[in-house]
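Bug report (template v2)

What were you trying to do?
Predict the complex of my protein with 6-O-phosphono-alpha-D-glucopyranose.

What happened?
Run completed; filing so the output is reviewed.

Input:
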Amino acid sequence: MRGVVNDTKEKPVCGIAGYVGPADALPVLLNALHRVEYRGYDSCGVAILNGRIETAKAVGYVDDLRAAIEDANGAASGAAAVPGSLGIGHTRWATVGSPSKLNAHPHLDCTGRVAVVHNGSVENHYPLREELRARGHRFRSETDTEVIAHLLEESGGSPDGVAEALARVHGPYAIAVLFEGSDAITVARRGSPIIIGLGHGENMVGSDVPAVLDRAHGFLHLEDGDIATVTAANVEIRHRGELVRRRVHHVNWGPEDVDKGGYAHFLLKEIHEQPRVLRDTLAGRITTDGRVTLDLKLDRRTMPEELFFLGCGSASHAAMVGETFFASLTDTRVQALEASEAVRPKRRGPGAWSVLVSQSGETADTVDAARDARRAGHFTLALTNVPESSITRTAHATHHLRAGQEISVASSKTYLAQLAGLYLLGLALYPPAERPRRKLAAALRKLPEAVQQALAMSPQLEQLGTRLAAAEHAFIIGKGINYPTALEGALKFKEVAYLHAEGYASGELKHGPFALLGPDTPVIAIMPRDDTYDRMLVAVEEVHSRGAPIIALTDCDNAELQSIAQSVVCLPPTEPMFTPVVGAVALQLMAYYCALAKGCPIDRPRNLAKSVTVH
Ligand code: G6P
């Protein structure tokens, strides 16, 4: 079993890039930053060393920075605006200090001879700032990061000097630093991930793989406490002063995986990738007779006496689906919890299982929940899309989702992969009798096809989504295993289309929200023909009597629905427990087209970030 990561506290997400080699650093950095922009996009900047350190910064997207640099240099010149072949860059999701040019990274020391980009948080930045001020340092920004630049100014750029400066910093960090007079990028990590991309005669630095993708043939993850010196020809890593080696991973996806592939947005591309993602995530893991193989060996472990599913955002909705699915298979106590709300669990033996659902494996609240559960003696299992993430390092075991990189901030394909992961886990732990098991297995294996059919309904869903663009408020209702689908659909509308949509349990609507219903408040009802259908129909009739327009998402042609709903969408049928998969796809598409009609920045919604590594 691997050790528990201690330092998983505040770790703001941001994108980092670095380049050292024969090429002009600026275009390489701008392209790399563009690819990690989903991590934060309120401001950005680069620092390039060419004799002396030059910086360029902008508020907004990397394209704004590109345009600002072109403007400053005369777009026609085509010359490298900030020449040099050694540089670092950053795209920010503001925490300490508002999004502004002054607060954008890289941050410099007083002399302008040290430049730092940082992902993390300096928890003791107030006392350090006071102390440094007293020694004559002058600060330009409001950020916590700037203290690191000043500490490095005092300690110097040798690995020992860097270690000395970082020893003063409380809190997690991943940093990349330029020192005037050096031909290297210095990189260090504690608690926030950072990688080094290995090229031919050049090397890169990145907050994650997309930053190094187009030039690296391999990459390595730094471990907590590592300090690396990266030149064009060499990467030297020290840990507590000793030279160490880290395993080289091969890049098994190409730039096309982080391109839009002809789609207008990453979200649309990722929605359409879902049949393939389901195939990949199920491949080799379930036989036709329903026998499941997971990435972890279950036979050597105690069976759960109770199970907790924890996640945030979409992952918490997947956890809720998992709860209902498991409850259909076993009497074992199963509970889904929002990781951000979960109280520290009571001490238990390994019969208590905590399953941490997180596509990124970096969400601070979920990482904390993993750590707390492990401390409380639970067996911890990570269901994640990123094998080398904080959660996989914290948990006892991992089941990898294999959804591929998801770029759009709003989850789509990783949500479906999380659902599939939970279905597999349920069938592995609590296999039903042979006949129902075969039936479930057949339906699970057919899900990619069902999703493909749902995608083929795009024209109708586009029309409905576009119509919803006129609404200010909407309700999405569901029951049983599709109550979380309602929550997930509402989340999609909120985050990508800025529509105030509320996911509600259909039976609860009359306990308050009825007061809000009227002709301007559309209600989307998720009502596959399962044992919740009749109760859903009653709810829909009640809504109809209050004059609210209804969009029914069902899986059968139904005359009674035709007469009360304004629109009926007949989705491909599947097993009742798997209907959340098909329902989610329909809602994703409607939210996407609603956002498109409203002109929203679909892949990068305001104020959000792909993985939220702050509490
Ligand atoms: C952010 C993302 C959501 C995601 C949530 C949890 O809020 O915008 O799409 O569901 O984090 O992320 P995780 O990586 O833990 O699944």
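What did the reviewer find?
The chain has 17 helices and 25 strands. The first strand starts at residue 15 and ends at 20.
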